[in-house]
Structure formats: structure tokens, C-alpha cells
Amino acid sequence: MFGPSFLSENEVEFILWAPYQKKATLRLNEEKYDMEKDEKGYFRITVNAKEGDKYSFIIDKGEIPDPASRYQPDGVHGRSQLISLKYEWKSREVKIKPEDLIIYELHIGTFTQEGTFYSAVEKLDYLVNLGVTAIEIMPVHQFPGKKDWGYDGVYLYAVQNTYGGPYAFMKFIDEAHQRGLAVILDVVYNHVGPEGNYMMFLGPYYDVFRSLLFTKV
User: Fold this and answer.
1) Which of 82, 78, 86 is nearest to 47 (CA)?
2) Would you kindly state where each structural domain of the chain is located, as residue ranges?
């Protein structure tokens, strides 16, 4: 899978798909490591690293965040941050028959005054009392700014930082499941927003000068 993968608590493999690039360097905190490229355009390297470390990649266009980042604490232009995604779940899977689904479409940024997953947890009982059986969360891929409908996301594997990030997201799902609420996630994988899209420097498809068939327009 693209991006960082924890092999152990203190060892991480970084993978960057960048067929357009001849060279890529990992900047982990303040250390730099040259990455190796294979015949399919993947750059890889395994180094000692831990949760909370910040990193980025240096390519011919300069220094960029990881397009496959799991967390962008400083927004779409900031450095990426390692996060293990370890979470102790207290709930079990919620299974609801399709005919019993009463879906509440929810926008995290405007559902509460604070606009976060943590504050949304406090209103889950309200949804239960309404008779809702499932929550459909509008897209939470990392996007520019603090609030957005979610359809301009540019980091497809990172949860919006202003909503609380991935751990807050997992907490919200866990709390919903404990109340018997199913959670549906609205995702957008067919396009990315205009700001913070660094994938165009790395490979085809997200390059505006190429068609979906990877040929020049």
C-alpha cells in the first residue's frame, strides 16, 4: 500500500509511487534518506521511525507532503505525520438489515458548533432518540481550510485535521457502534480538489495534461 507502513513500533517502510521522478529523498524529521526506485515507478525505503515523527519527500519540484499521508496536522501544505492507527475498540460490528436502515446524513464540520468528531459524539444519543439507525458521514478526506462539503479533498487516506484527525474519527465510530448505530462513509476517489494536489508531479491520471488513458491530450 502507498504511504508509510509500520513494520514494528520503531520501524517504518515508506512507499512513494512517482514514475515521473528520477530521484526521491525521504526527509524524516531533519534527516534525509535517498530512496530506491523499482521498474514500476515505486520508491521505497525502510528506516527507524516512530509515531509522531514528521516527514516529507524531496523531488525535482521541491519538498512535498506525502500524497498517501495518514495524517496532515498542519493542513494540505504541511509536512505529513506518522500515525500507527492503533486503537482499542470497545464495540462490535453493527449489522442492520437494509429495510431497517433510517439514514441520517451528517456533516461533521457543521453538526456541532465545534465542528469535530469529539463534539459530535455528545449528540449521538440525540440521533438515537430520533429513531436513526445509521449515520452517513459526508467526506472527511483532508481538504484545504477548516470547513468544506468534503468534495475537494486531496489526501485520500488522511482524515481532516480540523475535525480531530483519525483517532477522533475512530472514537466517533466506536461510540456510534456502542449505541447500535451503523456508520456509512461517503468517499470521493474519482477526483481531488485543486489546492494541495501534489500527485500531479508524481505520475499520470492526476496530471491535467493527460487523459485517463495515460496518453498525452
Assistant:
1) 82
2) 3-85, 98-185
* Rounded Cα distance, 70 and 72, in Å: 7
The C-alpha cell of 173 is what? 465510530
Cα–Cα distance measured from residue 27 to residue 208, given in angstroms and rounded to the nearest whole number: 27
Strand, coil or helix: 117:
helix
pLDDT digit string, tens, across residues 90-148: 998 899 999 999 999 999 999 999 999 999 999 999 999 999 999 999 999 999 998 88
What topology is assigned to 3-85 in CATH? Immunoglobulin-like (2.60.40)
CATH 3.30.750.90 for the 98-185 domain, yes or no: yes
pTM of the predicted protein model = 0.89
In 3D space, the residue among 80, 155, 17, 15 whose CA is nearest the CA of residue 4 turns out to be 15
CB-CB contact of 72 with 161 (8 Å): yes
